[in-house]
Design goal:
It is built from nine helices and 23 strands. The strands form seven sheets. Strands 3-4-5-6 form a four-stranded antiparallel beta sheet, with no helix packed on it. It is elongated, with a radius of gyration of 30 Å.
């Protein structure tokens, strides 16, 4: 059974019964339009289903593909439907009602491994399985003829469109559980976000012992094909984060899923397990400053904050917090003159307590004369005890 439920209205709610178990489903990208009330359902075959009931015949169902293996994944974008079974990934062009290409998996790749598909944009597809992530692009060009395989897929007539592998990444340490794109601010360049499962662990033994390692989330650029070397580029991962979803020590590889929601204003990534959902988002300027501070790279954090362009993207409290941490860092490094000047830059009228805390640090290191020219007499006016402490210091030592 396939059940369609609207999040904000019941207008599109529907329930359709099938005679076979449905393993995957994808609705039309513009489903809300009356002419597009169509969805694709995958079992041992792929079917296009018109959810409207027609007189005498009921729901109109069209078989797109039937072959060896269960269709486990379907992704629909624009006029292209990408779907995967145990043998290969296929791409169906709805506009011409034909399958334009398929990409076979590695013969040595176990059939139990999950397949991950995601459209980067119209005509550009990410394919993840086993240790590999491939980037396939729909190209216009010379006609081609598809190759048969033992699953019952018939060779098709020559096509005007074809799929070509334009990039490939290998992850020896991980099995790919999911792959999605993440775009830069200019929206033309992009990287891949890959959810990886430790490939060196025996899943069944580790699950019995509750000792499955946690998954990792990696960001890597696509390894493009180099015509000169006749091979794909070896790229370096940009970031790697360990995830700790609930119950991860008992999860199998195929129980993880990675999905994304990409809009003009934000990107959201969802890591799903049988009992948990993790939301991941791209870091902003504030997150970058926090990262530098955690790495104790205070100078780099300060340079980032003082950049006029970056400062506009930071919360005012984050700017002040970073400045104060840098001041204490300078005091610890015995760079008292520079720390005193930063006090004047980052401590304002509302920071009376912070002023006094910093002055006590200078006093403890016997460098009170360095900050004396910067101690405020008003706005803010410090406590009487603070001024008496400063005066007493000079009476004793100067």
């Amino acid at each position: 059974k396939v059940i369609i439920v609207g999040l904000f209205t019941s207008k599109y709610n529907n329930s359709i019964q099938f005679d076979k178990a449905i393993k995957s489903v994808a609705i039309h990208p513009h489903y809300i339009k009356a002419a597009n009330r169509v969805f694709a359902a995958g079992s041992d075959k792929l079917q296009l289903v018109d959810e409207r009931r027609w007189p005498l015949i009921g729901h109109r169902i069209t078989d797109i593909h039937q072959g060896y293996g269960i269709i486990s994944t379907i992704k629909w974008r624009d006029c292209f439907i990408a779907f995967a079974n145990e043998k290969a990934v296929f791409v169906y062009d709805v506009s011409i009602k034909e399958t334009i290409s398929f990409i076979k998996f590695d013969e040595m790749s176990p059939t139990y491994l999950p397949s991950s598909l995601c459209w980067v944009k119209n005509g550009l597809l990410l394919i993840g399985r086993g240790h590999l992530v491939k980037v396939a692009e729909v190209k216009e060009g010379d006609s081609i003829e598809l190759i048969d395989y033992s699953g019952g897929f018939d060779p098709l007539a020559k096509k005007k469109r074809r799929m070509a592998i334009v990039a490939q990444n290998t992850f020896p340490e991980f099995l790919v559980c999911g792959v999605v794109p993440v775009k830069f601010q200019n929206a033309t360049e992009w990287n891949m976000v890959v959810l990886g499962y430790d490939a060196n662990v025996n899943q069944e033994e580790a699950i019995l012992e509750g000792a499955v390692p946690p998954p990792h989330l990696l960001v890597v650029p696509a390894g493009k094909y180099s015509p000169e070397d006749e091979e794909f580029e070896t790229v370096t991962e940009l970031t790697r984060d360990k995830l700790l979803p609930r119950g991860y020590s008992y999860c199998r590889c195929h129980e993880y899923h990675l999905e994304c929601v990409i809009t003009d204003t934000e990107d959201r990534f969802y890591i799903l397990t049988p009992i948990d959902i993790i939301l991941a988002q791209k870091t902003d300027a504030n997150d970058h400053v926090d990262f530098l501070i955690r790495k104790r790279q205070f100078k780099e954090a300060m340079q980032f904050v003082e950049n006029p362009i970056n400062s506009k993207m930071l919360r005012p409290a984050k700017v002040k917090e970073t400045g104060l941490l840098y001041i204490y860092h300078l005091i610890k490094k015995a760079r008292f003159s520079e720390a005193a000047r930063k006090c004047h830059d980052f401590l304002g009228p509302a920071d009376r307590q912070r002023w006094e805390d910093v002055i006590y640090h200078f006093l403890a290191h016997h460098h009170l004369p360095v900050i004396l020219p910067f101690i405020p007499k008003s706005n803010p006016k410090l406590s009487q005890a603070m001024y008496e402490t400063v005066l007493n210091y000079f009476l004793l030592y100067d």
